[in-house]
Design goal:
The structure holds 2 protein chains of 2 kinds.
Chain A: H1 2-16, E1 31-38, H2 45-56, E2 60-67, H3 72-82, E3 88-91, H4 97-102, H5 110-115, E4 127-128, E5 131-132, E6 135-139, E7 142-147, H6 148-154, H7 165-181, E8 187-190, H8 196-205, H9 220-231, H10 238-243, H11 248-253, E9 257-263, H12 265-276, E10 284-288, E11 304-306, E12 309-314, H13 320-333, H14 336-344, H15 356-360, H16 369-376, E13 379-381, H17 390-405, H18 411-427
Parallel strand pairs in A: 1-2, 8-9, 11-13
Antiparallel strand pairs in A: 3-12, 4-5, 6-12, 7-9, 7-10
Helix pairs in contact in A: 2-14, 6-7, 7-9, 8-9, 17-18
Chain B: H1 3-42, E1 45-46, E2 54-55, H2 59-65, H3 68-98, H4 106-118, H5 121-131, H6 138-145, H7 161-186, H8 190-198, H9 203-231, H10 235-240, H11 252-262, H12 266-295
Antiparallel strand pairs in B: 1-2
Helix pairs in contact in B: 3-7, 3-9, 4-7, 7-9, 9-12, 11-12
Classes of the chains: A alpha/beta, B mainly alpha.
InterPro entries (chain A): Bact_solute-bd_prot1, SBP
Keywords (chain A): Cell membrane, Lipoprotein, Membrane, Palmitate, Signal
Protein name (chain A): Carbohydrate ABC transporter substrate-binding protein (CUT1 family)
Chain lengths: 429, 296
């Protein structure tokens, strides 16, 4: 009986994960850090950072721990709560940054931030009450991808960086009719199913727009454009895109649409897919995302766009010595050296001041000036401004997105409903 | 001398019994009973997973009372259940009666009917989404062909998304309950049917007077199962519509998932879970009482 009790206790301990962590309290010698990543086979940036760091810090090894891309934050929050999270973990976007920071799951890395140059984009998004809690290593931006061959076929002039949304919509319709006349089934534009494809631009480009205000009137013109293009048949409707599980990679890469707004991460994917044959081979380019007003268009102005930075934070439960090593890793990840390595695999680093040449020298990349301008010049606002209310408000706006684009509710009514919900369910708490 | 072996044998029997029970019971306690117990504590707290939970008394329940999304989810859950329960019950019973005959290839048809139940829900949702796609889906193609000018938008329409989900839910579940009904049908003595036949009962009368009463224990069991599963519906909806368009298919389980795992409000999510638990509990009690009264 005693023995079976002991066995049961052992079993319970094993199941509940109460096995002590090996102590790493030695003062010197080699050190191993663990780093969280997702989809390691198709996302080489984590390995690139780990390998690059090892060459300058031979004593510190960075090991990767894989997470599921779609459930990254859910899994990470569970692991942090259970005390089993890796030493350094990625802030995939800003939506959950508040949860980590407010939950005291991030080490204050203001000292690392203080030493970084002014060229590192997205750093300020990680600051709370004067302290910095994560260091960005990549900062994507949303741009307009266009298929040069389809534009030529339809006889429509290429984007020149001067477009507002009205001109974008007009071009999408022209492209659709032009291509149809040539017997091509491709549509003028593709808008992916995410709520951010309308809401990200609306929040970034509208003066005074704020998620936390609970006033969502700023969304209206952007949904008018989207609905107009859906009704005109110049872009696939949201319903057809979701029920048929369309992927944006296939829509643009297989030439189903002549243009598409998407983040700069797609540059690497598209190059890769064209090289492997997963995407058709055609000439493409990137142009600044369409703007709300003429004021921010043209190559002498800075176009306004959006995207969350991707950053690294440190798990506070690790030893002092490991924290010091982790801080060195964070400083490296945001450095110009790391930026070059990241650009070499098509990733847009947080410091993108000197990497445009690296990216555009990759095989298959566009070489025109507008593409280079687009990559280097933008005022990038966050998709998820850091706040306690961001996650629940974004969930309300997700419902608004499907409600409007499915045609279930007119824009004004949907906005009023979302505002009421925001007031009652989120902001009044 | 004579008492020892008896006592020892008894002790041995107990130990053997326990050893069979223990693996499952330990798992149940650690992974189900303890978390469910904790739920009743967390429902009265505010907790974001990190650190301790703050006791807030009945705040979560007060918030629920004026939370319109909660009421929408509750209404939708009842909407789903009210149609899904009788529909699944009827279809699976009909299938069982049909496939209880001795006919060629009956095993094949039984397997076919059972197949949806063991198929991955993600695959089911993807295929049904394509079949029901408003623009190019085969279902609407057929509807247009037989003269329906304005076929429904199914999962992309706020009015039709719930019927679409109910349809797929029924299709997925019918095979499993058919199997239970088939097992129940085997227990009805053939003599009863023969006697009814001799008395001149037609098939419909035989069904009402012999089959249905004979199936009562099975029907009760199946009804309880379908009811609980309908109120708990989650996976079909999550992968087919994700609660949309808007909140037209948002159900309680999904609302709990959203509040808990997407917005990290585990206290509030626990409180909503308790409401769902109470509903399932109440409905099951009522069913037990009704069943008991009928069997007396």
């Amino acid at each position: 009986m005693k023995r079976s009790l002991a066995a049961l206790t052992a079993l319970l301990l094993a199941v509940s994960g109460c096995s002590g962590d090996p102590d790493d309290s030695e003062e010197s010698g080699p050190i191993t850090l663990t780093l969280a990543g997702w989809s390691l086979a198709t996302t080489p940036e984590f390995k690139t950072l780990a390998d690059g760091f090892k060459t300058s810090h031979p004593d510190i090894t960075v090991e990767l721990k894989e997470y599921d891309a779609a459930n990254y934050d859910t899994q990470m929050i569970a692991d942090l709560a259970a005390g089993k999270a890796p030493d350094v973990y990625v802030q995939k976007n800003l939506k959950n940054f508040y949860t980590y920071q407010n939950g005291k799951q991030l080490v204050d890395v203001s000292d690392v931030a203080g030493k970084l140059g002014p060229k590192v984009g997205g750093l300020s998004f990680y600051q709370v009450e004067g302290k910095t809690y994560a260091i960005p290593y990549r900062q994507d931006s949303w741009v307009l991808y266009y298929n040069k061959a389809l534009f030529d076929k339809a006889g429509v002039k290429h984007p020149d960086g001067s477009w507002t949304w009205a001109e974008y919509a007009a071009a999408a319709k022209q492209l659709t009719t032009g291509l149809k006349a040539k017997g091509d089934k491709a549509l003028g534009a593709y808008q992916h199913t995410w709520q951010s494809t309308s809401q990200g631009f609306a929040l970034a480009q509208t003066a005074g727009a704020s998620l936390e205000s609970g006033n969502f009137a700023y969304l209206k013109p952007y949904y008018e454009t989207a609905l107009d293009l859906q009704t005109a048949g110049a872009q696939v409707s949201l319903g057809d895109a979701t029920t048929n599980s369309l992927t944006y990679q296939a829509q643009f890469g297989k030439q189903q649409a002549a243009m598409m707004t998407m983040g700069t991460w797609y540059i690497a994917t598209l190059l890769n897919q064209q090289a492997k044959g997963d995407a058709d081979t055609f000439e493409w380019g990137i142009a600044p995302a369409p703007q709300q007003t003429k004021a921010t268009t043209g190559t002498s102005a800075t176009p306004v766009t959006w995207a969350d930075p991707t950053g690294l934070g440190i798990n506070p439960k690790i030893s002092e010595r490991k924290i010091a090593a982790a801080k060195e890793f964070l400083a490296y990840a945001a450095s110009a050296d790391a930026a070059k390595s990241l650009a070499g695999i098509g990733v847009t680093p947080a410091d993108n001041s000197s990497v445009a040449d690296t990216i555009f020298s990759l095989k298959g990349a566009p070489s025109d000036d507008l593409s280079k301008f687009t990559f280097a010049t933008h005022d990038t606002k966050p998709e998820n401004p850091v706040s306690k209310y961001t996650a629940p408000l974004q969930n309300i706006l997700k419902d608004l997105h499907t409600e409007i684009l499915s045609g279930a509710t007119p824009i004004d009514a949907a906005i009023t409903k979302a505002q009421d919900r925001a007031k009652n369910e989120v902001l009044s708490k | 001398m004579t008492t020892m072996p008896v006592r020892r044998r008894r002790w041995r029997n107990t130990a053997v019994g326990w050893s069979f029970l223990l693996p499952n019971f330990a798992g149940f306690v650690i992974l189900t009973l303890v978390p469910v117990g904790l739920l009743f504590y967390y429902a009265f707290t505010e907790w974001d997973v990190f650190g301790g939970a703050t006791w807030t008394g009945l705040d979560n329940f007060r918030q629920m009372a004026r939370d319109t999304s909660f009421w929408t989810a509750l209404t939708n859950t009842f909407y789903y259940s009210v149609f899904h329960i009788p529909l699944t019950l009827g279809v699976s019973l009909a299938l069982a009666l049909l496939l209880n005959k001795k006919l060629r290839g009956v095993a094949f048809f039984r397997t076919v009917a059972f197949f949806p139940y063991i198929t991955s829900i993600v695959a089911i949702a993807q295929i049904w989404n394509m079949l029901l796609s408003p623009g190019f889906g085969p279902v609407n193609e057929v509807l247009r062909w037989i003269g329906v000018d304005n076929p429904p938008g199914w999962t992309t329409s706020a009015d039709w998304s719930m019927p679409a989900v109910i349809l797929v839910g029924t299709w997925r579940d019918m095979g499993y309950y058919m199997l239970l009904f088939l097992a129940g049908l085997q227990t009805i003595p053939a003599q009863l049917h023969e006697a009814a036949l001799v008395d001149g009962a037609n098939p419909w009368q035989r069904f009402l007077a012999v089959t249905l009463p004979g199936l009562r224990p099975t029907t009760f069991f199946v009804t309880v199962l379908i009811t609980i599963n309908s109120f708990k519906v989650f996976d079909v909806i999550l992968v087919m519509t994700d609660g949309g368009p808007g909140q037209s298919t948002l159900v309680l389980s999904q609302y709990i998932f959203q509040k808990g795992f997407e917005e990290n409000q585990f206290g509030y999510a626990s409180a909503v879970s308790i409401v769902l638990f109470a509903i399932c509990f109440l409905v099951t009690i009522i069913q037990f009482v009704v069943n008991k009264r009928r069997s007396e």
